[in-house]
Amino acid sequence: MKLTSSKRAPKAVGPYSHAAILSKTLCVSGQLPLDPKTMHMVSEDAAEQAKQCLKNGLAIVEDAGGTKARIARVGVYVTDMTDFDRINGVYEAFFGSHKPARLCVAVAALPLAAKVEMEFIADLS
Question: Any idea which GO molecular function terms this record carries (predicted)?
């Protein structure tokens, strides 16, 4: 196993790595909607937050040698399911015809008062 981080994604907000590589499987830690340069939330809007989570996750996948087309699963955590349709629209536009397995869970709260957080699993082979 190898632990890895990306300079193109926001620094971890806790004691963890951006990702772990297990053989040819990349497990990406939950990504918050933070701008990697400022470490500030990109917006209060859930759809904009979803876009940033996807960008941050993809940066980590790419820096580990993967591609968007090799993302196998995405875990989506939201604090308000009334935002689901808008988040889903952003997600669908981002992935296009590629449709990774997905989990979407409503949670009571997320770190830094985010409305969305996403984790990723990608194949690096």
Answer: deaminase activity
For 87-125, how does the pLDDT look when each residue is reduced to its tens digit (9 = 90+)?
Answer: 999 999 999 999 999 999 999 999 999 999 999 999 999
CA distances from 96 to 47, 64, 68, 69, 90 (A): 16, 22, 10, 10, 10
In the chain, the N- to C-terminal Cα span, in Å, equals 15
Strands (E) in the chain, as ranges, are 2-4, 19-22, 25-31, 71-78, 101-106, 116-123
* C-beta neighbour count of 28 within 10 angstroms: 28
Q: Residue 79: which CATH number?
A: 3.30.1330.40
Residues 6+ apart with CB under 8 A from 28: 18, 19, 57, 60, 61, 119, 120, 121, 122
User: The whole model's pTM is what?
Assistant: 0.97
Q: Which of 75, 63, 73 is nearest to 98 (CA)?
A: 73
pLDDT digits (tens, 9 = 90+) for 62-76: 999 999 999 999 999
Closest CA to 29 of 18, 40, 43, 14: 18
